[in-house]
Amino acid sequence: MVFMQHLLGRRMPNADLEATSGSPVNPARIPGPAVIFCYPFTGRPGHPNPPNWDDIPGAHGSTPQALAYSGAYGHFRRLGVKLFGLSMLASEWQRDFVTRNKLTYRLLSDESRTFQSALGLPMFETGGALYLQRLTFILQDGIISAVRFPIPEPEKDAAEVLAVLS
Fold first, then answer.
1. What is the rounded CA–CA span in Å between residue 131 and residue 122?
2. What is the pLDDT of residue 3?
3. Which residues form the domain of 99?
4. Is-above-0.90 flag for pTM?
5. Is residue 163 in some structural domain?
6. Are 163 and 140 spatial neighbours (Cβ–Cβ below 8 Å)?
7. Are 127 and 50 in contact (CB under 8 A)?
8. Which helix (H) or strand (E) holds 144?
9. For residue 145, is it within any domain?
10. Do the beta carbons of residue 5 and residue 147 sit within 8 Å?
């Protein structure tokens, strides 16, 4: 079920987002088909989860979602689809996550909230910090062709997006 139909047909924000590869990615300028899945937070050894994380519907699931996309990366590549994850976490935090989990695609940092603000993406707050709600964009030449929101089972998002693209 899509609750964000007002975004369909809209161009992605023209913003250079820092990528875990070290070079910026501008979502408005991604040629061809692409998927950007937005997630709230990833845990990190030695750092506690945000306060009340276990009580927030939809907060958990970023690692299983990211790993499912990584496992399906070859399928996306065969379809010619570029794949990105996006959160408001700092790139340094994301690079650690990519390395620990051997992700096969880049994560984008919207730490400045430029992307989130331009699209008016839904967020939630805990412990005095804001986090993106989980949603997935399917793009064609930087234009939003589909939005998946909400995503009640993050670990199934990659397979469900592949089904839409196939």
1. 9
2. 64
3. 5-43+55-132
4. yes
5. no
6. no
7. yes
8. strand 143-148
9. no
10. yes
